[in-house]
Specification:
Blueprint lengths: L5 H11 L7 H20 L4 H13 L5 E2 L5 E2 L1 H14 L6 E3 L2 E3 L5 H10 L4 H21 L10 H15 L4 H13 L15 H21 L15 H5 L30 H13 L7 E8 L1 H7 L13 H4 L3 H11 L9 H5 L1 H7 L2 E5 L1 H5 L7 E7 L4 E6 L12 H12 L5 H12 L6 H8 L17
Parallel strand pairs: 5-6
Antiparallel strand pairs: 1-2, 3-4, 5-7, 7-8
C-alpha cells in the first residue's frame, strides 16, 4: 500500500498539529470550554455512580499517578473513565451539531486530562491535544450522520481521544495511527443506548471509550499494531456507514471549537431552546405550575425522536436522572414548577414527585416539518401553554443563549462554573481554578490537578448562587 489510509492520515494530522495553529481567539474559546467542563464535572461529584466507580477502582487496584477530581489517584485509564464520566453526568457539557446527529467534544476531556497528567505535560500541550481531539471528532461528525445511521457518537470519540492521548504520550505518526485503529475497531457504539428506559450507560459510554483509548495509545507506544484499513478495508467503517468518509486531514486548522455550543440547563442540547422558551413564558406571564392546563411543544424531528416520545421510546413515566435529562415532557414540567432546570431537578426524588409526574402527563411534544427543515443550523421551537383560566400563551423561539448566534462569553462561563461548583469549593479555591485556567499555558497540568483534588465530593458549602437560568 503506497497511499496513506484514513487512519494514517488522521495520525499524521495529530502528529503535525502544533501550538502555532492555536490562534488567540481559539485559545480563548478552548479555555472557556475547559472551565465549562470542569464546572460540569464538579457538579457531578456526589452522583451515586461515582461512589460505585471508586469502589471498583479499589477492588481492581487504585495505585497510579493520575488524579481523580475530588481527591484520590488511580491508573491513567481509570482516571480517564472517571473524569470523563463526571463531565457528562449532569448533561451540561458542550456540543457540536451536524445534520445527522451531534457529538460532545468535551467527552474527550477526561482522557486528555489523564494523558496529560501521566505525561507530566504543561497546559500548552494539554490545550493542543484537546484542540486536536475536538477537531477530529467534529470533522467526522460533520460528514457522517452517525446517529441517523443507528450508531452512537462514541465511535468518533474513540478516534479523537486515542489520537489526542497518543500525542501527549509522545507517539509518532505511525504509532498514532495504530492507537486510533486499536481504540476504534472494537468500539462500535449503537444509538440504542439512548432508548427508553435510559440507563446509566448513556452517560458512561463515553468514559469507557476514553478508558480504552488511552490504554490503546499506551499499547501502540509499546509496538502493538492495529488494522490500518479501519475505514477502507473489507467491512470497515466505510461499509458500516454505507457512504464515503471524505475528510481533508491535510487541513491543519484547529478552529472547530468556534462551532461548539454550550448549555445552561441540565438537559440534552435539543432541550435548550425549549426550556428557554418555557421559562420566558412562565416569567413574562407570572405563571405557576398550578395555572397550567396543558403544554404543547413543537420541535424538530431529531429532538422529538430522542427526547419527545418518538423513535427512542415513550417519555410518560420517567423515574431516574438518566430518564429525566432526556425527557422534554419532564423538563418542561420541572421548569414550570421550579423556575429552573439545574442539577437539583435531576434528583430522583424530584423526578418522581407527584406534581412533576402529574404535569408532565399534560405536556405534548410533536415534530414540526418547518422547524425540522431548519435543523441543525438552527435549534428552534414553539411552546404553547394553555392555562386553567382560559389564557393561551405561545412563543416561537429562535436559537438559545450558548448557541452559535449567541455564544457564551468567558464571563458567563465563569458564572456557570461558580453556580455549579459553589457547594463543593469555597470562593478562594474556585477563584484559583478560574485564574489558572485563564492562564493555562503558563502552568502545568499537575498544578491544575493539585487544585481539583481539593474539591469536596459532597456539598459542604452554602449554595447561594441563583444559577444562570
Amino acid at each position: 500500500m503506497n497511499a496513506l489510509t484514513a487512519v494514517e492520515r488522521i495520525g499524521r494530522f495529530a502528529n503535525l498539529a502544533s501550538s502555532r495553529d492555536l490562534t488567540p481567539p481559539t485559545r480563548h474559546l478552548l479555555k472557556r470550554n475547559i472551565l465549562d467542563s470542569l464546572g460540569c464535572a464538579i457538579a457531578a461529584l456526589p452522583g451515586k455512580p461515582f461512589g460505585a466507580l471508586r469502589e471498583q477502582f479499589d477492588e481492581y487496584g487504585s495505585g497510579g499517578r493520575c488524579s481523580l477530581l475530588g481527591g484520590g489517584s488511580t491508573s491513567p485509564d481509570q482516571a480517564a473513565l472517571y473524569n470523563s464520566a463526571l463531565v457528562r453526568y449532569v448533561d451540561l457539557l458542550d456540543s457540536y451539531m451536524s445534520p445527522g446527529g451531534l457529538c460532545h467534544p468535551s467527552d474527550n476531556f477526561g482522557a486528555v486530562l489523564a494523558a496529560a497528567e501521566h505525561a507530566s505535560a504543561d497546559g500548552e500541550a494539554f490545550m493542543l491535544a484537546l484542540a486536536v481531539a475536538y477537531e477530529i471528532g467534529c470533522r467526522i461528525t460533520a460528514v457522517v450522520p452517525v446517529m441517523a445511521k443507528g450508531f452512537n457518537h462514541a465511535i468518533q470519540l474513540a478516534v479523537s481521544s486515542a489520537a489526542a492521548s497518543g500525542k501527549l504520550l509522545g507517539l509518532d505518526a505511525q504509532q498514532l495511527s495504530h492507537a486510533i485503529a486499536i481504540a476504534t475497531v472494537d468500539n462500535i457504539s449503537l444509538s440504542c443506548v439512548h432508548s427508553e428506559p435510559v440507563s446509566y450507560w448513556k452517560g458512561f459510554s463515553p468514559g469507557i471509550t476514553c478508558m480504552r483509548a488511552i490504554y490503546s495509545a499506551s499499547l501502540a507506544k509499546r509496538g502493538f499494531t492495529g488494522p490500518l484499513r479501519l475505514f477502507e478495508g473489507p467491512n470497515g467503517l466505510v461499509r458500516m456507514f454505507d457512504q464515503p468518509i471524505d475528510v481533508n486531514w491535510e487541513d491543519p486548522s484547529l478552529e472547530v471549537v468556534h462551532q461548539t455550543v454550550m448549555k445552561k440547563y441540565c438537559s440534552l442540547i435539543h432541550g435548550q431552546p425549549v426550556l428557554e422558551a418555557t421559562l420566558a413564558l412562565k416569567r413574562a406571564h407570572g405563571l405557576a405550575g398550578s395555572d397550567v392546563e396543558n403544554v404543547t411543544c413543537d420541535i424538530f424531528q431529531m429532538g422529538y425522536d430522542i427526547a419527545g416520545g418518538g423513535g427512542f421510546g415513550a417519555k410518560d413515566d420517567p423515574q431516574t436522572k438518566e430518564q429525566a435529562d432526556y425527557n422534554l415532557k419532564y423538563l418542561i414540567a420541572a421548569a414550570l414548577l421550579d423556575d429552573e432546570v439545574g442539577p437539583a431537578q435531576l434528583e430522583p426524588a424530584r423526578v418522581q414527585a407527584a406534581d412533576a409526574q402529574a404535569l408532565l402527563k399534560r405536556v405534548t411534544v410533536r415534530p414540526d416539518a418547518a422547524v425540522s427543515a431548519q435543523y441543525p443550523q438552527a435549534l428552534n421551537t414553539r411552546v404553547t401553554i394553555r392555562c386553567r383560566d382560559g389564557r393561551v400563551v405561545s412563543k416561537e423561539h429562535v436559537g438559545f443563549e450558548g448557541g452559535l448566534d449567541n455564544p457564551f462569553t468567558w464571563e458567563r462561563t465563569v458564572e456557570k462554573f461558580n453556580w455549579l461548583s459553589e457547594p463543593y469549593a469555597d470562593s478562594i479555591l474556585r477563584g484559583q481554578i478560574v485564574e489558572l485556567v485563564s492562564r493555562l499555558e503558563e502552568h502545568t497540568i499537575a498544578e491544575l490537578m493539585q487544585l481539583l483534588t481539593q474539591v469536596s465530593r459532597e456539598a459542604v458549602y452554602p449554595a447561594t448562587h441563583p444559577g444562570i437560568q
